[in-house]
Structure formats: structure tokens, C-alpha cells
Amino acid sequence: MGKKLTKRAVDYSKWYNELVVRADLAENSAVRGCMVIKPYGFAIWEKMQAELDRMFKETGHENAYFPLFVPKSLFEAEEKNAEGFAKECAVVTHYRLKNDAENKGKLIVDPNAKLEEELVVRPTSEAIIWNTYKGWIQSYRDLPLLINQWANVVRWEMRTRLFLRTAEFLWQEGHTAHATKEEAVAEAKQMQEVYANFAENFMAMPVVKGAKSESERFAGAEDTYTIEALMQDGKALQAGTSHFLGQNFAEAFDVKYTSKEGKQEYVWATSWGVSTRLIGGLIMTHSDDFGLVLPPKLAPIQVVIVPIYKGDEQLDAISERVDGFVKEFRKKGISVKFDKRDTFRPGAKFAEYELKGVPVRIAIGARDLENNTVEVARRDTLEKNSVSQDDVVSYIENLLEEIQENLFKKAIDYRKEHTTEVTTFDEFKDVIENKGGFVLAHWDGTEETEEKIKEITKATIRCIPNDADYEEGICVYSGNPSARKVLFAKAY
Question: C or N terminus of the chain, fewer CB within 10 Å?
Fold first, then answer.
């Protein structure tokens, strides 16, 4: 399997980049800043997608699909949103290439094929969707409108890193319309809960739920609700956001409904999304110096079985026994792979599945057949046990649950150890620089203070936690009065 990974303690960034490529998750493409998601990485995304899609549908949402291209005039309609994304937009100006007469075989842009109106490649879909909703919404009977789409978006990032920040990425984006402000706020908060539930119960990644400060809000939102996770290098990851958009987009696109009383009123809006950056979060929350560590609920392969044999006769006997296990695992809904490739030795296979983070590995040889046992290795702790073949299916069913819980507990413990309350700016700087993690500190609520802290320490306000106590205090930087503590960290 090649040389060992760079250790996290030596160079966390290098470890991450090596792991993504070596574990066959993704690679850089011929397009600057864009990635190729390989089958194993895409299988993780499919598992995430399936669970999230189920959760969206359980909360009443339906899937639709909207165009990749947004006419520039529509994109400009909501000013804050347009300004917020303008620097990251890719724009289509022409629709045809033609042969270059002077350089045969070369193609050039046909100057006669200029578009009447330039098209923005969607960095987010509010504009095209709200222009569409104008035709869908006339009456209170048409509300609420609860739509989600699975799509790709383009944001022309200058500094990219596989999964965490790429010029093109995959995501889902929900866009909902409501009759009242209260309904829209409740929707935005509900989706924050859905994301938190997914992160904690499927990704085994603990998150802090909170609201963004005004300067960190989504462009065009009145409130942004976020879930913030802590990675093993002490940096925060914004893992999902949900936005209360007020009536900004309804006013920009003239989306009104007739109320029960017969009045014309603007609708209230939300949007919310998570992306393939969740795979980056999954990697950085759990993985170790040996490779990926995947929570069982999202692992493409939950159990791998490796035979140890000499000659076809032994392999046939082992295969016959393993076929029974495989059927039992599949009946229980456990994904299992029996790797009987003869092109790799068992040790190489062990290293491969360790690198790929398969939660449970079973090894079975001729002696195991005689003793009615198998060797079971768990990826999270690297512990091995000899287990009776009669009990192996129920043992592993329980073990998968135990691994899922253990990964969450380990991540929670790390977050507790790396969440520090401070009262002075010297303490603040020391923790950010030397310990890392989340810092809870009083903030006076001004953008000026927020910007100064960021300038000096590179730490940003990750969120105002939902469960923050409203306790009077003194701002950690300015010394001015503060109503509550907020969560700071350096972030991806």
C-alpha cells in the first residue's frame, strides 16, 4: 500500500491531503480547483445523500431541479445576495467555438456567438428559484412551498482543498416559501435541527447549534442558523447552514400571495444547504495516522471478510462457511464484502481496509474452521478478538452500534477538552495560538470588535450558541458591556 501517511501531529494539512488521495476518495482534476470524486468517496456521499433525503421527505419536502445557468439580470435582482457572491461567479458570455483559420485544429470563441444576456453559473439558486416561484404562488392555498434540490454549484475559489473548498461542489439546497414570518423562522430552525441530528447520529460528529453574527450571515439573509463542528486540529468547520431570508427575495422577484382575507402579501422565505464538505468533516473528525475511520452508519462497506488460506481446497472450504455469514449479514442490512482476490496477500488487504476505514474486519483461516472461530478487528480502537462462528453475526451487529457510539463519545470528549472559557484578551490569544479549539468569550456585539479580533488572531465568531446564557459581562476585547458569550475559533 506504499509508504505510511504523514502523521497528523507533524503536518495535519499534508496528512489530510494524502489520506483523501490514498484512501481513493477523490483527486484533483484537469480543471483548476475542481475535483474528481472517486467511487469510494462517492459511495460515502450517496450514503449521506440517502439519509438526508429521507429526513427532508419526512419533514414534508419534495425534490425538484432548477437550471445551472442564471440570467445576470435575475442574479442582480436581490442586491445583497448578488454582491455577496459576485467575486466567486463564473459567467458564460458566448455559446459557440469555431475553427481558428490561422491555426488549424485549434478552436477559438466565435465573436458572433455572444449571448444577448450573460449567464451566471449558479453559485446558489435563490435567484432562479424565486423567479420560478412567482408563477407557482398565487394564493395562501399554495403555501407552504417546501422544495429541495440536489445539484452542483460553482464558486470560483482561489485556494482549494479536496472536499473542503473546491470551485465546483455537490450539495443540496432547500428553498421554502411561507405565509408568515413565524412559519419561515420555524422552518429555518427545524432544518438546523435536521442537520444537527444527521451530523451527530450518522456522522458521529458533535456540533454546536447557533446563529451567525451579522457579518457572517449568508448574503441576503436576515438570520443564519449554523451547526459548527470541531476538527482534530482544533479548527472549526461550518457543517451546515439554514437561512431565514425574510421577504427579501419575495420583494426582489415580486412573489405575492392572496391571504384568506383577500389581501396581497409578500411571502416569507428560507434556504438551507449542506455539501460534499461534510466528507471532509467526517475525515477530520475521526481518522487517525493509519487512515480513515468511518462511522458504521455511513461506511460503504461495514464488514470486510479476508480469507487466509493455502491452495484452492482451503479457500473453497472457507468460502462455503463465509457464504453463510454473508447471507446473514445482508438479512440484517449490514453491508459486507468477501475479499478473496488472489492478487494480494492478507497483510496487504488488512492495510488497505485499515486505510479505507472499514469499521470491522473478519479474518478466517483453516485453523479457524477447525476451532469454529474467526478473528474480529475493529477499526476505531484497532482491538482484535476471537469470536465463535455461531455468534459472529449478532456480535458484529452489536459491535457496529458500539463503534458508532464510541466515535461520537470520543469526538465529544475532544470537544470538551478543547472548549475554553476566557475573560481576558491575553487568555484569548494564548488559547487560540497554543491550544486551539473553541473559545467562549464575551463580545460587545459590534462588527468593529469582531473585525479587530479576527485581524489580530484570525479567529472568527463561529456562532452565538442557541443555549448561550444571557449573562451580563465585559467584552473580551473592548471592555464594553456584553449580554452573552459567543463561540470563537479559527476555521476552515
Answer: N
Contact 118, 86 (CB under 8 A): no
Split at pLDDT 50, 70, 90, the class of 104 is confident
Could you tell me the three cell numbers for 113?
456567438
Whole-angstrom Cα Rg for the chain: 26
Contacts of 330 (CB under 8 A, 6+ apart): 336
pTM of structure: 0.96
Cell of 329: 449479514
Query: At 267, which amino acid appears?
Result: V
Residue 427's pLDDT is 98
Give Cβ neighbours of residue 89 (< 8 Å, ≥ 6 apart): 75, 120, 121, 123, 154, 156
CA distance 19 to 7: 10
Section 200-215 average pLDDT: 98
CA distance 185 to 368: 59
Task: Return the H-helix or E-strand segment holding 399.
Answer: helix 392-417
Query: What per-residue confidence (pLDDT) applies to 2?
Result: 65
| Tens of pLDDT, residues 367-385 | 999 999 999 999 999 999 9
360-365: strand order across its sheet: 336-338, 303-308, 360-365, 373-378, 384-388
Q: Which of 247, 253, 245, 252 is nearest to 267 (CA)?
A: 247
Instruction: List the Cα angle 245/173/140 in 5-degree steps.
Output: 55
Residue 423 DSSP class: S
Bridge partners (DSSP) of residue 149 are 173
- d(C-alpha 102, C-alpha 230), whole Å: 56
SS3 assignment for 295-343:
CHHHCCCCEEEEEECCHHHHHHHHHHHHHHHHHHHHHCCCCEEECCCCC
442-466 pLDDT, tens digit per residue, is 999 999 999 999 999 999 999 999 9
240 close to 200: Cβ distance less than 8 angstroms: no
The answer to whether the CB of 85 falls within 8 A of the CB of 219 is yes
Q: What is the pLDDT of residues 324-334, one digit of tens each?
A: 999 999 999 99
Q: Specify whether the CB–CB gap between 126 and 250 falls below 8 A.
A: no
Backbone angles phi, psi at 371, to 5 degrees: -90, -5
What is the H or E stretch that residue 47 is in?
helix 39-58
Q: What is the DSSP letter of 165?
A: B
Q: Name beta bridge partners: 441.
A: 486
Residue type, 71: P
Cell of 484: 452573552
Q: How far apart are CA 156 and CA 153, in angstroms?
A: 10
Q: pLDDT digits over 229-242, tens only?
A: 999 999 999 999 99
C-alpha distances (whole Å) from 458 to each of 255, 428, 488 are: 40, 12, 10
